[in-house]
Design a protein that fits this description.
By secondary structure, this protein is of the alpha+beta class. The protein is built from three helices and four strands.
């Protein structure tokens, strides 16, 4: 009868290293980042979130949309932030003429207590 080989003990697993910094990618020339902060009227934060979520799918499919992410305030549940990156100002302007944006634009006043927006250009 052949001898059986002894199984080697598996080395203890080391914890996975977490990267200390995200890979930084240079945006295309002419790209713009848009930061939009939205505050819900009292009692409207669930409806506002639903309306904002409805924008995500169709917007991400638009030409020139490089990034379109929605965030909720960790300490302020009725506050939302869009982090948008567009290939150009023209692409963002075209976005404001789409059916899903026009639908949002018609409903926003009933849901918003306030909003702020600012365009940014990557410099490094």
């Amino acid at each position: 009868m052949p001898k059986r080989r002894a199984k080697k003990k598996a080395a203890p697993r080391r914890p996975r290293r977490i990267s200390r910094g995200a890979k930084i990618t240079k945006l295309p020339k002419g790209a713009l980042t848009l930061i939009v902060t939205l505050r819900a009227k009292d009692g409207q934060h669930l409806l506002l979130e639903a309306e904002l979520r409805a924008l995500i799918g169709p917007t991400r499919k638009e030409e020139g949309c490089l990034q379109y992410d929605l965030h909720r305030g960790a300490d302020q549940p009725g506050t939302f932030l869009f982090h948008e990156v567009w290939a150009s100002r023209e692409h963002h302007t075209a976005h404001t003429r789409t059916p899903h944006f026009l639908r949002w634009n018609a409903r926003k006043d009933a849901l918003l207590a306030g909003n702020e927006l600012a365009f940014w250009q990557q410099i490094a």
